[in-house]
Amino acid sequence: MLYYAIVFFVIALIAAALGFGGIAGAATGIAKILFFVFLALFILSLVFGGLRRR
């Protein structure tokens, strides 16, 4: 999932450089959402993984 967040971020950078404001904004929004979902899942896996080992 982090891979997709990075891909959308790169798409947003390229679109912004070429002047496509709407596409860049949409890709940035998608990248943010995917990044925070990845971050939440990562923290949950750390917490539940630590609980399982005890």
UniProtKB/TrEMBL annotation:
<keyword id="KW-0812">Transmembrane</keyword>
<dbReference type="InterPro" id="IPR009760">
    <property type="entry name" value="DUF1328"/>
</dbReference>
<feature type="transmembrane region" description="Helical">
    <location>
        <begin position="33"/>
        <end position="51"/>
    </location>
</feature>
<comment type="similarity">
    <text>Belongs to the UPF0391 family.</text>
</comment>
<keyword id="KW-1003">Cell membrane</keyword>
<dbReference type="GO" id="GO:0005886">
    <property type="term" value="C:plasma membrane"/>
</dbReference>
<dbReference type="Pfam" id="PF07043">
    <property type="entry name" value="DUF1328"/>
</dbReference>
<feature type="transmembrane region" description="Helical">
    <location>
        <begin position="7"/>
        <end position="27"/>
    </location>
</feature>
<keyword id="KW-0472">Membrane</keyword>
<keyword id="KW-1133">Transmembrane helix</keyword>
<protein>
    <recommendedName>
        <fullName>UPF0391 membrane protein EDC25_12027</fullName>
    </recommendedName>
</protein>
